[in-house]
Amino acid sequence: LSLMSHPLCHPQLEGLCSFLQLSTCPEPFLVRFCSWLLALSPDLSYTSAAILAEQLFLRRVLSLTQPPSRHLMAALTSFCSKYSHPFCRVLVAAVLQEPGEGAEQTKLMCELVEECLEPRSVQLVLREVLEVPLSEKLLPVLQAVLGRQEVLPPELLDLLVLTLCQQAPAFTTSLSFAKLVTAVLTVYQSQVS
Q1: Which residues contact 106 (CB under 8 A, 6 or more apart)?
Q2: 75 φ, ψ to 5°?
Q3: Where, if anywhere, are coiled coils annotated (predicted)?
Q4: Which of 147, 135, 153, 137 has the alpha carbon at shortest distance from 184?
Q5: Which of 40, 76, 129, 151 has the most CB atoms within 10 Å of its CB?
Q6: What is the dihedral of CA 20, 25, 29, 34, to 10 degrees?
Q7: Which residues, 6 or more positions from 115, have their beta carbon under 8 angstroms from its beta carbon?
């Protein structure tokens, strides 16, 4: 298990995850495993945390057709509390690239943004969302980001405003888009002209 923190053992870590069947293990075990991960010293490397985020959560999150169980939510929340940056890199990107409505995935992303992610990771979520064409599915995620009222770096705020301006014609009848624009103008009124 010392492989978890060793920076040179990523193929072995993937093999260990496969051997332990972490992607399909029972959710109560997943909660205990995440608690154990948080207690590891030293902390996991970024790459190790990203591999574990993928092995532990990716399949589960992408296959959600109803709200996550309390066990899965507890595991996600605990993992995010310490490794939110690699978690976002793996999971948010995959959810955004997933075709279709993805209603449960969108709700989960909103909940994580609102309650679990550190400010730097909230900015990462925003960057990831702005790298793909906006859709109705993504508007609640942007709304959740704005609800945090985090101070955004000027270049990220500029990108948000530019994206909204460029994609506005596709949302002329969208109430969600109108609410999003209003939120941007309210939260960042001193920086948006």
Answers
A1: 95, 137, 138, 140, 141
A2: -65, -45
A3: none
A4: 147
A5: 76
A6: 70
A7: 77
